[in-house]
Amino acid sequence: MKLLVALLFCSSLLAQEHSGVIRGVARDSSGAPIDEARMNLVGPTRARSTTGPDGGYEFRDLAPGAYRLSAYSRRGHNQRALALGPDQELTADVTVALNAEVVGRVVDDNEEPMVDVLVTLVGREYRHGTIRHTFRSAATTDDLGEFRLERARPGVRYAVRAHVKPDNLDAVSDAPTDPDARRPAFRPTYYPSSSDLAGAERLTFRGGEVREGVEIRMERAPSYCISGVTQAAGATGSAMFQLVPRWPVSGLHAAGGMYIATPQRKTGADGRFRVCGLATGEYRISVFSPSEGNYTQYGFVDVAVVDRDLTEVTAVAFPGYELPGEVAWVGSAPAESIEDELRISLAATSRGNYGNELRARNAKSRIPGDFLLPSVWLSEYELRGLSPPKGTYVSDIQYGGRSVLHSALDFGSAPDGARLRILLAQDPGYATFTVLDKDGEPVPDGYVYLIPDGVFAPGDVAARMHELRGDQHGVYSSDEQPPGVYQVVAMPGRVLPEPESIDRLNAARPTAPEVEILPGETVELKLEAR
Question: Dihedral sign, CA of 140, 145, 146, 152?
């Protein structure tokens, strides 16, 4: 009987601890409710839901604490940071800033519609300190040469690119050896009619805008071939390969990630390939082949077609190499041992994944401890999702003795046997800011950015800024921060590592205050909204 009473008492306490409610309405920037928006709640309790026709949603049985609420729809998304108290019923509406759409058509130099052409939205961003161009959205032209691109974020400058899809290019082409006897190719073209990205007309959109009349004119050009041989495991033989333009790139970007599907072709039994119908430009040939072990072999070669065919190109696939590593402490270790493990995951920055390489690029490590990534290809990566234990932070990441904390990990650039070192520190500081408007009232749902002292170059700012999201009370709290001096900038909208966003952030810095974050202490400051 006593046991039953105890169990009922514990169940009652658990129910009290999980009795919070968050509900609200998802609307677009015009105020209209959004039906079938996906709502995602992350915090002490995790939950998902979908809005109804009135835009309403509700999460029940929530534990108190800090939450991040995300709303996703076909036309845009947004997030809110929320603080939920015990037994609280919180109303939290979400306004989704609508993306723009681009409507147009693609024609040839005779003004005839170009059918089944790939049209992409190309954005710019800082990645590891430098500018790169990535795909953000894609569409295919219909029988009238018309297209519709979605997901153009307002306020961002984009280029629009048309490119003949490579689906019909043979692995071993029988095109004539004489270039003059071949069918012409079409150059990849940026709106309105430039074959070079530098000549593209950049477009900027308002939220919810539908930009019409974007016409791209593609011109015929000489058709060239690239021929050569693939090698894997030290021998020439049949292999799978892909041929794609070098720029822009698929992969991860500031607002998520996008991958343009590219057909995989198989060489002849002798490993030879001959791809024709190509215009001038830079290309990457990637080759991959199954190995006797668990992982695929991979390699690539970059080539440039200028004014003639390329012959005797060799693309070699290499097996993955072991990447040993360790997780270590900077300074003294904690007095008590840490039971948590650190998950290590390498993400390719500018390509998709082949075979089962994802499994080979993930590992767990004790803290401190050693780990091994068993099969990593020669390529460029970044570490994503490192979650050190509470009360600690990542002080540095080193590969071959060089810091890659804010740069790409170019695997193979260090001597053989070079280790990946993840250095943790246990002397963090913290910061809490309150953002006030001109009347002294708290400003909720904005952003605060911490920028380390002395960091001014746009690419460095993009790599090293730290974002704080305000809750419904206008309070902006950091997680564990490395001690040091920071400039503190309050912004009404989110800053992504894109030139337009970084320019707005830097423009706000001349009057922004500085704070010093000390080990084990929390700095508090009131900021004026901009």
Answer: positive
- Give the Cβ contact number of residue 31 at 10 Å: 8
DSSP bridge partners of 100 = 152
Nearest to 358 by CA among 440, 298, 445: 298
**pLDDT value of position 8:** 41
DSSP state of 472: T
pTM over 0.70? The answer is yes
Residues 12 and 142 reside in one and the same domain: no
What Cα–Cα distance (Å) separates residue 471 from each residue in 70, 275, 394, 446, 476? Answer: 13, 55, 25, 8, 7
CA 367, 368, 374, 377 torsion: positive or negative? positive
Torsion of CA 470, 430, 517, 461, to 10 degrees: -50
Same domain? For 397 and 479 the reply is no
The answer on 349 and 260 residing in a single domain is no
For 25-37, the pLDDT digits (tens) are: 999 888 899 999 9
- What's the mean pLDDT in 389-411? 94
Q: How many domains does the chain have?
A: 4
Same domain, 268 and 397: no
Q: Which residue has the higher pLDDT, 249 or 294?
A: 249
Answer yes or no: do 244 and 348 share one domain: no
Mean pLDDT of the residues in the chain: 90
Q: In this structure, are 289 and 185 located in the same domain?
A: yes
Give the single-character DSSP code of 203.
Answer: B
Are 197 and 341 within one domain? no
Domain holding 449, by residue range, is 430-528
The CATH number of whichever domain residue 516 belongs to comes to 2.60.40.1120
End-to-end CA distance of the chain: 63
Residue that finishes a domain, picked among 367, 401, 425: 425
